[in-house]
Structure formats: C-alpha cells, structure tokens
Amino acid sequence: MFLNCHSYHSLRYGTISIKELVKQAVHFNIKTLALTDINTITGIYDFYKLCQDHNIKPIVGVEIRVQDELYYICLSRNQRSIGEINRLLTAFNCEGIEIPKANPDFTDTFVIYPLENIPEQLADHEFIGIRKDQLNLLIQPELKPFIHKMVILHPVTFTTPEEYELHKIVRAIDHNTLISKLTEADYCKDNEMFTDKKELLAQFYHESQIIENTKYMVNSCHFDFDFSTPKNKKHFTDSRENDFELLKKLAYEGLSKRYSDDNLQAKARVDKELGVIDQLNFCAYFLITWDIIQYSNRMGFMHVGRGSGANSIVSYCIGITDICPLELDLYFERFLNLNRKTPPDFDIDWSWQTRDIILEYIFEKYGKDHVAFCGTNVEFKYRSIFREVGKVFGLPKEEFDTLATKPIQEHDINSVSRQVYYYGKLLEKFPNQRSMHSCGILISEEPITNYSALEMPSKGFPIVQFDMYTAEEIGLEKFDILSQRGLGTIDDTVKLINEKRGIDIDIQDTSLSKDEARCNKFLSSGKTISCFYIESPAMRGLLRRLKCDNYKVLVAASSIIRPGVAQSGMMREYIFRHNHPTKFEYFHEVFEKELGETYGIMVYQEDVIKIVLHFGGLSAPDGDVLRRAMSGKGRSLSALQKVKDNFFESCKKLGHPEQLSMEVYRQIESFAVYSFCKAHSASYAVESYQSLYLKVYYPIEFMVSAINNGGGFYRTEVYINEARMSGAAIHNPCVNLSEYQTTVYGSDVYLT
C-alpha cells in the first residue's frame, strides 16, 4: 500500500537512506514497497537488492515534478517500463523537451495523479491517488465519477518528527531561504511516514473499490533485474568469434613489432592471455579500447595507458599501453583471471587539450543512446553543512563560519547554534547534488536509458544518475578516459622543437628516453623540476636519497612516495635497505622469496596481495577483497573486517608469532588508500622519463611548453626561472614577436 516512498536520493527533499527505508518496512511487516524518488532512479538498484534480502516485493518508479509541482507518480509494471520513465526524464534533462502534465506516452507504466492534477481523460494504466486525509472530499460530485480509478496514496518522506524538521531544513536549503519563510507548499505534510498497514486500510474501509484498485496495481508491478549479465557493448565486430579473431590478429602483429621472432616467452604469454580473454568474453572490451587508441593515433595525440592494464602483454602488443610486462615481471592475473567476472579496467590518459575530442569520438562512434558518463553523488560535507544550515536559521556569516571551523565547545552555546549543530550532524553523508564522474565512460549494448535517466551537467556530456559502484553492480563497467597537463607539456614540446628547430623526435619510442645516461644523472641529483610526477620537493629529495639512476628504481620511487607508504615508515626502511642491501634481515622467508626485488618491503598493491596469499595463507578471493579496498573500489567495511579476522586466524594456524602477524598487517593497512599497482607506477615512470629527456636535451622549449600548459607543482615564475637558468633570455610581450602563447626563437623567450 506504500506506493510513494522517497529516499534521500530525492535530493534536498527525502531524509531516509535506502537501507533505513527497507529497515522501516521490515519493522512494520510490509511485504510490498515502492521507491519513487523525485525525478531520479538513483537508488532503485540498491533498493531492489535490499528488498530481495528481506523478502519484500520491490516496486520501483519515479515521482515526476517540475519546479516543485507534483505532476504524477510513475510505477514500473515491468523492466521495459523503467526505460519509458527514463526516456521521459532524459528528453527533459538533455533536450529541454517539456514533460507533459498529464497523459505521458506510456504503455508499460502505471501513472498515479494527485487530486490536484486530475486529467480530463484517464487511460487504462492511469489512476488517481487519494490520501487518507482527503477521503472526506469524495462527497464532492465532481470526484465521484473517478472513485473507480482511485488508489491509496500514502507518501513516505521521513521516519520521525525530528526528520520532519530535517526535511524542512533541506527544503529551505533547496529554496535558499530561511526556514521561517517556507510555505506549506514548499514541504511535505506531517503524516508522510510509515504507519501500520491495517490502520491505513481501516481508513478506507468504506471504499472497497479503492482498496481493490491498489491491490491490483501492487500485484501487476514486477521489476525483475538480472545483475549477473554484463550490460556493456557485447561485440566490437558482429560476433564474439570475429572479435576474438581480430584481437588475435592484432596481438600477433604487435608481438612481431614489440619483440624478436625468437622470443618464445612473449609468444607463450600472448597465447595464454588470449585464452583467458576469450574465455571470459572480454575481447570487445579490449577492441573498443584499441579502437579509441587508433583514433587517437590518427589524430596525432599522445596517450598513456596505465593502471593494471599494463600487466597485460596483449595490451602492450596492440598499443594500449607502452609497458612491457615481461621486463618488470608483471603478472596478468593482477589484471584479469578466470575468477574475475567483471571486465578489466583500462585507465587511459590524454592531454587536457585533446581529451574532449576523444570523448566526442566515443559518443559519435558508439551512439549517444549507448554512451554516458558515470554520475557521482556529492554529499553534504562537514563545513558546508553548517554554513548551509546556519543560513537557514538566519545566523550571520561570522557565526556559522565559526560553527563550521570550530568544535561546538569552543563557541557560545545558544538554542539556535545548538539546533544548527544537531541537524547539521544529521545531514552528514546525505547526497546534496549529482555530478559527473571525472573520467568514467559507460558504453552499453542496449540503450543506456534502459537503466537510467540521463542528466546534462554544464560540461556538456550526459551522465547516468548512479555512481560507478552501482554501474559495476548492474553489469556496466566504465572506460576511464582521463586527462593531464604532463602529456600536454610533452606533446607541445615535441611540436615546438619541430617547428623551431626542424627536429623530429619520436618521444613515444621509450628506448629513446628510458635509462638514458645523461637523464639518469639529472634523476639521481633531483634536477627534475617540471618533469611529470617527479618534480615536487619530496620526490626530488627521495630521488637524491635513493641515488636513483635507472628505470626500475624510479618505478619503485613512484610508489613509495605515496602517503600510505611514507606514513607507515616503509619508505624510510626502503631507502635504508636500498642503500645498505647487506645490513638488514627479512621479516620472514616469504618476504625474501616474494619481495626480494623491493628488499622485503611492500611497495605495490601486488606485493600486498602476495603477502596476504603466501604469508597469511588466505584465498585469492580474500586477496581480491583487500586489493579492491586498497584501490577505493570496495565499499564494504564488514567484508574488509572479515578478511582481517581471517588473516590473523590463518596466521595463527600457520604458526606465525602474533606480534609478527600484527606488524605485517599494520604494513598492509598503511596501503588502504594510497598504494599504486606496479604497472601504474611503471607507466608514470615512463612518462617521467619522457619529460626528463626533453628537459635535459631541449630545456628551453620544454619550459616554454610547461608554461603554456599551466605549469605543474609550482607557480609559473618557477618555470620561467628554470628557462632562464637553462640559458634563455626572457622578454616581455612584444607586439612583433609574441604569439598567442609564450614562444621561443633560439634562446629568446617571449612571454604573453
């Protein structure tokens, strides 16, 4: 009977989390429940799963409002229905097509109108909702003809009286006004909370037709969603078989270019990977990424394929990455294995100047009906909460700034500030607005509106209404299309050298820059200002302390500089062991065997997994839970705690001393957020070397390009001074010689 429930995904309106909404239904012994958030489907998939877990029949839908006016409530009769609703909202959000106030063009969706918006004609699937406090209105002659088309409407927006006040507060925030200036039309009625089902039905005892209509609607709604089936684009060609043949052909062609013909190890690795990729039906994912790279190459753009994708030799052979996994002993299983049921995740960087062109190609190539960015929920944050709530209560700026920056104990306590603090704490972690994921692109087989309505943020690319975690849960894996200024600097330098000196440099030929002798001298002395990822004072200090003079040490440095490693003390220990390889002992023989390359120190995500498996004796799935938690992809603290408990229990069975096990896990925990996978560090190290090569041999052109790309870690003046120290004569803008951007003639640099 509860056909109109709001969660806090009804932004700045609802006050109940999805979890709490279902918990309330369990408490009131409700067996059927509908989620109808305002103009969004954000929560329906989490809602569906939670209802299934508690033996509640889930009904999903959307409450349609335009400028706060309730038009109608839509309930999905089947899976096709949610697509109808999504396309209605998408047309409004992305194309500005007006939402009809009545009789939307639906065939699979129930529509419930409020009494305030009864249309002239009702279709078979359209009904009128009546609240228990509106029953006395049925004596009106104009309403009697509609009784046979009425259903019980009991909205749910909050769970307690204090949440009702919270609801008013978020409504005031939404209207940017004082809570005292809200009108009754701005917020919901004070009875929009769960009630006993029998008591609710008793209110309609004399209107049996309304009860029967409601039961009919409840029984007719069926939303069954298959989470196990991948929703990504299935094939790059016309079939799975042809996808595999094309990928195999491309991999072998790349193999002959990347390696010598007699490299049996590389060939065996390619064959092994192709078998796994085909068995898991991931060929299309590889080929779509390859296709994007091919377009980038045709356009003359630089890219960097990084992340765990660089663990794959197939990725290396077809040009997605430039990291040889054999050289660094990168194992493919970190990226993809037969136990993994979700597609791999490629992270591809482009210059900040060219990324939008790549995005436009993807939307054009694969169809705007099938491509969208992941969304993300921007939550109310601690400081902004008190400013928002403080404004609602009419506090002066100075006072709510104090509330936002100091604990409650450190300022004057009064009834208003106490209320601001109390309700502000309740708002923590509430979604405040939807935004665009920075890089995650979804490419679906079916129209993407089958799964979500789309919104159009200011950046001009549509987004789905759920985040990357929900996308993954329902079977949509993202392609990470990123941008950075470091690549822009490298690319612009190469072009500038060609323009001003007539010299062609193939900077993507890594043999040119990687482990080049003169570059290594600069590296070991920390002369790396303006070089990608290795220019900060901390990194330059680390390079000097390590006396870093080769690629593999730079790869390690790229990881141990991360805060998690540094704070745990492992960075300090790594430096000591690197400089004194005979003056330390390994924790345990497992550390010597598995982590000999890094002196027994866990430096990469892969190292942590090795220790979990080989020291802790845990299973691969447990290792994967821990890895995903470290990379930020795991959301379950309970699952992480379970792995921790299993780790100590397993260590005890294996006979490890408790103190040793605790120290090992302490090191593991230090990686919780900040650690790199080894392939990621290797990709960064290659780009660092490319930057360094240009800085060493073409310092003036490189600094000019750094200036034009907005610099890096330091202010622009630092890069100007670097150019001057490299022999450049710096000139103010000149009407005859200056260009749109800073430019160079010989050693003369003209600023803009």
Structure description:
The chain is α/β, with parallel strands linked by helices and 752 residues long. A seven-stranded mixed sheet has the order 1-2-3-4-5-6-7. Strands 8-9-14-11-10 form a five-stranded mixed sheet, sandwiched between helices. Strands 15-17-16 form a three-stranded mixed sheet, with helices on one face. Helix 16 (485-501) runs parallel beside helix 28. The radius of gyration is 30 Å and the shape is globular. The relative contact order is 0.08. The model has no long low-confidence stretch (mean pLDDT 89).
Uncertain runs: none
Order of strands in the sheet with the most strands? 1-2-3-4-5-6-7
Mind describing the biggest β-sheet? 7 strands, mixed
**Helix run count:** 30
The helicity comes to 40-55%
Brief overview:
The chain contains 30 helices and 17 strands. Strand 2, helix 2 and strand 3 form a beta-alpha-beta unit. Helix 16 packs across helix 29 and helix 19 crosses helix 20.
